[in-house]
Every structure is written in structure tokens, then in C-alpha cells.
Amino acid sequence: MPQLTKNYVDTGKVSLEIHDFPLTQIHTGALMAAQAADCSAEQGQFFLMRKTLFDGAVNKEWHDGSLDDLTTFGNYATAIGINRAQFESCVTTNRHLAQIKADLALAQQLGINSTPAFIINGRLLMGAQPYAEFAKIIDTMISPP
Amino acid sequence: MQRFLPFWLGLLLITLVSCGFAPGSTTTNIPNDTRLLSERVPNPRLIGAANAPIKIIEFSDYQ
Fold first, then answer.
1. Which of A4, A12, A100, B17 qualifies as a cystine partner to B25, CB 3.0-4.6 A?
2. Interface size between A and B, measured as CB pairs under 8 A
């Protein structure tokens, strides 16, 4: 969300924290993708890998959590400049599975069952929303009428 | 015993190197931070100021 980042995050008004919600029942590659993102986080490149994963999904470069996907993700790791061996070890040993489970538990606690979902200072916003909707909510929170 | 001191020192050095404690020994590149990512400071999955007045938590899937 570049506009949200530019107008609210970069100005110090908003922080954005990402949590995993792999829809494993319908997306067989979702869990490995979440692992790939979190394994990139430990090397400081979570957001770059996140963008790469989204772009790769759109371009159908990966899809089912297979060994082919692992190779693709390893190529992504190389492309974004992180240590590939550490990354692959992290993914194949499910190093951040506890984080993913914690994220899923939090989502369940908050009544979330689909993605994307947003909690804005405690207010739930479900689904992909235009920037204007975020701006309206945030502006109201910053300056209540 | 003193005659064998270099032997014992060498054996100690070999032991330390194999355990990764001696200078010049190599260690595998495995992070030793076992905390959840969300518990780390800074949180690697967060952008913006941690004390920003508005916090957005996004739950997302990659497919």
C-alpha cells in the first residue's frame, strides 16, 4: 500500500505490522510461502520477500509448496540478497512455525477467517479495501469529529 | 607432566575448535534467536514507528 506508507507510515502516524494467515485448506503453497517470508525476516528482508512472493504468485511462478517451489523461493532469496543456505535451512526445518501458529491463533481470537484482514487500533476491516477507506478510518481516529 | 603440556594444550585447542569456541573456528550460520519474530525488537515484520498512535495489523496470505 504505497499511498498508506507515504502518507501515514512515513509521517509517523501509523505503524503496519504483518502477520501470517496461510489459508492452507485452499492454498497448498501458503504455508511454505509464509515460512519463506518469515525466514527472510530473520535476515532483515521480510518486506522485499513479501513483495516478491506476491508478484511470483500473480505470475504463477509458485503455487503448491513443492520442491519446485522451494527452489523458486531459494532463487528469490538469492535475488533479494540474503543467505540462501540459511534461508533454505530455515524453511525446510519450519523454524518459524511457532510464529505462524501464534498468528493463526491471534486471528482466530479476533474472529478473522479470511484474508486480507486488518485490525486498525482494534477495529476490524475485512477484505481488500481501497486506500480511501483506510484514510477515512485513520483520519477519524487521529482527529475524531 | 610438564613435558606433555604442549600435547595437552594442543588437545584442548582441538577440542575448543571442534566446539566452535576457539578463535578462527567457524560456526554454522544458524541464528540463535529463538524468540518469535513479533517479540523481537525491532520487529522485522513491522514498518513505521513502533510507538505510532495508529497501529495496523494485517493478516495476509500469499496466494
1. B17
2. 137
